[in-house]
Recover the amino acids of this structure.
């Protein structure tokens, strides 16, 4: 009877686990980070009590929007992770990690601390990080960069909304 040994680290992921499982891991990581951020020090009912601009979306829209955006982010990150290796992969994953950490930090600052000016600075950093991620991903895997474009647009919109809320609630 032959001895079973663990798969070699040099084997591609599809020989170790199905590709869809790796994709699912990235999607769960991104959505899980978003959910964790929303649970830490967040009072979601606060949004309804704020003075908001007339163009602000209803509160119920944010959950589905972020779920879709985090799913696209996870999919894009999977594509880059899957189709690159070595230094380009490490650079892309570093950009991803920095962007995700900044992204996750905004919710507790805005909702938990209710520091709208500080949240505006954080979301500005998020926007820069998302744009950098879109460029880095797009240079490695064009489809991945395109999957990040809606996130960049949404964070740009959210930045404008954050600025308006900060101004109206000073």
């Amino acid at each position: 009877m032959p001895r079973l040994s663990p798969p070699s680290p040099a084997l591609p992921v599809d020989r170790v686990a199905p590709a869809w499982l790796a994709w699912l891991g990235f999607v769960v990581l991104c959505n899980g980070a978003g959910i964790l951020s929303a649970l830490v020090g967040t009072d979601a009912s606060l949004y309804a009590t704020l003075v908001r601009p007339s163009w602000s979306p209803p509160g119920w829209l944010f959950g589905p929007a972020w779920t879709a955006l985090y799913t696209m982010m996870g999919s894009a990150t999977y594509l880059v992770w899957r189709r690159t290796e070595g230094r380009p992969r490490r650079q892309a994953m570093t950009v991803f990690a920095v962007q995700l950490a900044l992204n996750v930090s905004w919710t507790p600052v805005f909702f938990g601390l209710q520091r709208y000016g500080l949240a505006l600075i954080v979301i500005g950093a998020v926007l820069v990080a998302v744009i950098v991620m879109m460029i880095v991903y797009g240079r490695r895997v064009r489809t991945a960069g395109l999957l990040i474009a809606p996130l960049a647009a949404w964070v740009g919109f959210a930045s404008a909304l954050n600025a308006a809320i900060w101004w109206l609630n000073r």
Remarks:
- The chain has a mean pLDDT of 90.
